[in-house]
Amino acid sequence: MKVGKQTIRLENTPKILDTCSIVGPKEFAGPLSSYFDLHVDDVFVGEKSFEKGESHMLNSCINHLLSKNGFSTQDIDYIFAGDLLNQCISSGYCIRDFNIPFFGLYGACSTFCESLTLASLLVDGGFAKKVVAATSSHFCSAERQFRMPLEHGNQMSPTGQCTVTASGCAVVVPGTVKGNSPKVTYVTPGKIVDMGIKDMTNMGGAMAPAAFDTILTHFKDTGRNPNYYDKIITGDLGLLGADILVDLFSKQGIDISSKHEDCGCIIYDNEAQDTHSGGSGCGCIASVFSGYFFEQLKTKKLNKVLLVATGALMSPVSSMQGESIPSIAHAVAIENEV
Amino acid sequence: MNENIAMNDEEYSDYVEQKAKKSPIAKNIFWAFLVGGLICMIGQLIADICMFFSISKEDSSTISTIILIFLGAFLTAINVYSRLGKVAGAGSTVPITGFSNSIVAPAIEFKMEGYILGLGSNMFKVAGPVLVYGITSSVIIGFIYWLIKLFM
Amino acid sequence: MDIFLEYLKVFITGGLICTVGQILIDKTKLTPARILVLFVTLGAIFTAIGIYEPLVQFGNAGAKVPISGFGYSLAKGVMKEVDEIGFIGIFTGGVKATSAGIAAAVVFGYLASLFAKPTIK
Q1: Which of A3, A58, B35, C53 could connect to A136 by a Cys-Cys bridge, CB 3.0–4.6 Å?
Q2: Terminal Cα distance for chain B, rounded
């Protein structure tokens, strides 16, 4: 049921039964390495190209999610997936092998919450029993699409972020299924916010207002405030974007600094791994949520989280044509029954 | 624009600018100067060695250019130049070795899409504009020079 | 001592040209590709109006190795060719003077890419 301006309350509170994450070598060398289910040592993942490698990685991730829960591909009703590449080829070619009805999504780095939102809505409406939400990103395939060739010797701007090589996926089931998995209670799909930032090496600055708008709208619509949540998790704002988000809230007299955590800031050791402002990409929040935060929800270390994935919806073409960066953020409230 | 944020686009842009971490410009300049200077010295050394073997000054300069281009390509192929570029910035981009790097880098990457339409057509993805504007300016300069000579 | 001074001049000239590039990258948000285009064009124009030649006399390889030196060769080549063969020289001069560099870049670039595999930095 729609509440307020943008938020939907999920009356039947579908559950996130389980998640799975897979990361690349650089992410595995980072501080969260012990939380991820799987990792790959080679950026090619044994394939001939980065794009095929990314597809392979997503495939392994979904396969592992199914096998560890004893599901076969026939058990899954629908799959929502997306990635950063043109025409979402990583997802498309990955799901080609599964024989599961598929919705391809593009929300840039916000895709994980977009797929999780739609999967939850489908289950909540009673249209499906098991729906998978998945996303992936790959440093090398994203770099060649959005920036310069890998071997080109150039310096990254201090506000630049490093695309995470990772995939994450979750399976959503109806609230009536037994077990104490966390539930999706509210979703707040975001609207596009564009504050005129044109610098493609400053995505955090471009996306922070979108995150701010969606989170604030979520609070207004649900009547909640930051104290309600144990954690407010944003996707890939990076150090600069996270700083701006907290500052924008403090300008409204709301303090979220003790609750806020950004996946882009914690996936790497920014100093040692030279990742400048942090991680980015759809795989960032997907892997960190699926690996790190979901574990804490399962063990009840966290009981109420607001998951907010942020995305920058530009392309190299729009950027060269002088357009600014339109940004979006989707929020999903995930809570344990207490 | 956003109704929840009490800033217009320009104010927000300034606000982000002021929050953003600045490039470590002193450090960058130091490395750019050092690496750029050293690459030029290597070029001079190669030319001097050629001249020592009594090759003409002009040919020595050409040989030096060819060898530097080779070195740039070689260091790119063994994944060293991109690391150098991270530290040296313009110090490794501006010399002719950087021109070579900007040709090899896309060539390596687009090899995955085949040798003709991948490697062949993307080789000059980054360096192409240098040739376009360089050669165009030379033709314009030549034309003006020819005109001046005609009337003088 | 003479040779030391010569190399110092090369080092300083080359270093300073790269420093200008670095300042442009850090201060103006110009991308490296734009900086290269700017340098090659300015190199050609400065040669045409006679500013670049003294720099080459002073710094030698320090002024020739940076990409502005490519512009220098283009402009110098085209003017020489116009002197020698007239109108056709407008089209042949620049590329003729830099043909070795362009051919080397294409061939070495092609060969290098055949053996290389991209990796993450």
Answers
A1: A58
A2: 60
Chain C interface includes A151 (CB < 8 A): yes
Which chains contact B through at least 3 pairs of Cβ atoms less than 8 Å apart?
A: A, C
B35-94 residues touching A, CB cutoff 8 A: 76, 79, 81-86, 88-89, 92-93
pTM comes to 0.93
Using DSSP, state whether C26 is helix, strand or coil: helix
Q: Is A155 buried (19+), middle (13-18) or exposed (0-12) by CB count in 10 A?
A: buried
State the residue range of the domain holding C38. 2-115
Q: Is residue C23 part of a domain?
A: yes
Question: Could you say which of B12, B83, B105 has the minimum Cβ distance to residue A149?
Answer: B105
CATH 3.40.47.40 fits A183-335, yes or no: yes
Q: Map out the domains of chain A as residue ranges.
A: 2-173, 183-335
Closest of A312, A318, A330, A332 to residue A108, by C-alpha: A312
Q: CA of C46: which chain B residue's CA is closest?
A: B141
Q: pLDDT of A224-270, one tens digit each? A: 999 999 999 999 999 999 999 999 999 999 999 999 999 999 999 98
Number of domains in chain C: 1
CA distance A118 to chain C (A): 34
